[in-house]
Amino acid sequence: MTNSDITWRIAGGSGDGIVSTSENFAKAVMRSGLNIFTHRHYPSRIRGGHTYAELRAGPGELKSRGDGYNFLLALGDSFGRNQKIDSAYYGNERIKPLTENLDELHKGGVIVYDTGIIDIEDVPDFSERADKNNWHVYPIDLRAMAKKEGRDIMRNTAGVGATAALLEMDLAPIEALMKAAMKGPIFEQNLSILRNTHSLVNDTFEFTHDIRFPTGAHTEPQALISGSHAIAYGALDEGCRFISGYPMTPWTAAFTIMCGILPDVGGISEQVEDEIAAAAMAIGASHAGVKAMSGSAGGGFSLMSEPLGLAEMVEEPIVLLEAQRAGPATGMPTKTEQADLNHVLYTSQGDSTRVVLAPGDPEEAYEQTRLAFQIAYGYNLPVIVIYDQKLGGELRNIPVSFFDRDPNPSMPGTISEADLPNAPHHPSGKYHRYRYDAPDGVSLRSIPGQKHGRFHASGNEHTQEGHISEDPINRVLQVDRRMGKLVAIRTYLDSQDISNNTKYGPISSPYGILTWGSNKGTVEEAIDRLNSSSETPIAKALSVSDICPFPTQEITSFLESVSKILVVEMNATGQFQGLVKRELGAYGDQLYGLLKYNGNPFEPAEIVAGFEEKILGEN
Amino acid sequence: MNTTFSAIGENRIVDANEFTPAIEPQPTWCAGCGDFGVLTALKKAVAEVGRSPEEVLLVTGVGCSSKISSYFECYGFHSLHGRALPIARAAKLANPDLLVIAAGGDGDGYGIGGNHFMHTARENHDMVYIVFNNEVFGLTKGQASPTSLKGHVSKEQPLGSAKDPIRPLSMGLAAGASYIARTAAVNLSQAKDILVEAIQHEGFAHIDFLTQCPTWNKDAKQYIPYIDVQKSEEYDFDPRNRVQAAQMMYETETALADGKILTGRYFIDDRPSYQQEKISRGSMPKDPLAYRYTDENYSWERSIDYVRKRHT
């Protein structure tokens, strides 16, 4: 038994059940008392192709996927379970789950591979590399173990049985989850495969490795949550009961979760013809009095540019999700990136009035999605929650009690029918939906069907009752009022006790790391490592979620408190660094960008290395 | 009657003049424009079915005809070019008690918004869709529209358009509209009757409304004389028979190119509306979702129940 983290990687082909196996295994490990952080890597391919899931588990707090891994369960790529189509393989795909990123396996690490699919002779210099790195290799015919009791595909269960044996894990939590997830003969077969492989490994091998399963205990019940789930649950608790969308990775995850829940709670979900319709429908539903959302990945968000501008002009509250993936165009659909920052800030014509929030972890994803609805339905404008494949797909454990909160279906930006008769109207009887003198610029909206509430909504510039007008005085009054809402929102956010932007590390640190969105945890882990290697504090971090309206005060005071700043983001052009310079008009010579855009998220060691090179290296 | 949306379901006698806004009583359309006819017919039709201004949501696109939302007193929504339908149908899903009407031009509905037209018809949303078909782009000054005849000359098509016009009625039928009619702005009585039927029809009612453009389509027509295919003895078909309807539509569309104006009801189908389908599947609440937000007694569902069930 040990207290060290373990990072277990299960690798195979698309269609080999990597995701479901790893998720169930993660839940079992969480139930055993450990903290969890998962990472998924998968190709945009239907069958075959290298895919893996990593599970980092340990008794202490885990903020990132960590660096590399120390246990590899290589199933080999069965190419969608069809062993007969040799021609379906491209190159060395059959062994890729073993060979790909093999050198990231820690020294002293463990390898279990399926001899039923992988011929170790095909792996270049395998035994030399294993010797050099002190890898402990356990070849097992997982395929045969699976076939004996069930079917080929159950190789993953055999692999979990082998893992449990080698790490000296208790089988009970794994079996309990299998029982909940499977039925009848499928469960019986998998149970036998799990137990048989567990026994076989114990009976066959002399264990030479040091790695064992760590022990831990939770002080309260935990839930295994992805960023996509956290977003959906935040929306649910704010009374969102309408979603419209079009499938696109990685936004599909949140869309799917909402589509699964909404019928259950008397809501409406709509999969529609394109993303223009998706965002337009959220506008229509919201206009009729329902809390509504839509979303997409960057590509679909391009189509939403038009309705987004309409929502700003008619002041319709909607929440849009933007789940980033590597672009441009189709880019790399299943790979993560943060290159849509400029896209969400600047798309659509005219001076914009939108709010953009970028949560950094599942807790923030939940809270900031709630905040997104509160701002949208409080100030009558569109709010965008921008995240990415990394945050959307990573699973982490959160105390169940975190979600024990009151729902909030209220819409403070909407006038009640009772208040309408005494509200300002045009002499013709039309309601002043867009009144010049509204406090904070927030002119309350009425809802079709309300008496004395009729008005005209228009994408054209309009008068107080909404009729089309090109009068210059009216124009300036309306633009100023709409823009004023952003000032009011900034003031509101600044007045909150807890900022959406997270400071981390010793206040007296001479250097800083500035980042945004999903890099938060990885940056914080890097900060811990940098400071633990020194007697005096070296670095602190600010992880920014308020993208627009820009948190000028908070970022300025952070930049003022350090001499050099590393700006960490997953894109090639330093979009957030550019935003900081544009908004502040200063500090440019103190900012050093650390960029990654190969499709994979940062590991903490990369940030430490980048900091040492770019910040410390020039001293 | 809902106490927080009390304009809905009043069931009172409504006068057509209630739909004339005091703020912009006079449209800015050109003298002789067919759009005036649509506006008049619509006021009469909505009054006839007894719906009052504040229970009507009129969603339009962009173009000359889409300005009708300014000239028809109700909850109006002048949206984006081609995007009236998704906005309108979502509003109807959110509150099926509203009378939802979408309107726009032929470029708006059959061109830039063609995908939305196809899918809204297919889904059979319970609403009326009025397409002002003047066979030309008006607001942008005379370019060929999806319904312009081959050979239409404009500054953008100086040698004449090389494209055949689309067939709007046939397109509505193929897409899945459950009520399809063509009327003409010069035929006010028929137009009003068809609008009343379309409003009362439960499903997607597509009206191709011929609206003459005296400014940009001078060679075209006043759409006179028109023939009502139901009244004329020359034509005998059953609008409830899809094959006969398709044949009649084809003939009507072809005839228009030859200057012969055929109008009337072309297709009537009683298949359930999208709302009915969704409610029967449990994927839409029976009571309008919009009312829940003003119901102080509603007990809102909480995410923690899902977290406990699915994530622990």
Task: Explain what this protein looks like in three dimensions.
The complex is a heterodimer of chains A (619) and B (312). Chain A has 619 residues and is an alpha/beta fold. Chain A has four domains: 6-204, 3-Layer(aba) Sandwich (Pyruvate-ferredoxin Oxidoreductase, domain 3), CATH 3.40.920.10; 225-403, Thiamin diphosphate (ThDP)-binding fold, Pyr/PP domains (Rossmann fold), CATH 3.40.50; 417-494, no CATH class; 502-616, Rossmann fold (3-Layer(aba) Sandwich), CATH 3.40.50. Chain A is 37% helix and 19% strand. Chain A contains 19 helices and 21 strands. In chain A, the strands form four sheets. A seven-stranded mixed sheet of chain A has the order 9-8-10-11-13-12-19, sandwiched between helices. In chain A, helix 4 (142-149) packs across helix 5 (155-167) and helix 8 (227-237) crosses helix 9. The longest helix of chain A is centred in the C-terminal third of the chain and has 23 residues, at 472-494. The model of chain A has no long low-confidence stretch (mean pLDDT 95). Chain B is an alpha/beta fold and 312 residues long. Chain B contains eleven helices and eight strands. In chain B, strands 2-1-3-4-6-5-8-7 form an eight-stranded mixed sheet, with helices on both faces. In chain B, strand 1 (56-60), helix 2 and strand 2 (75-78) form a beta-alpha-beta unit.
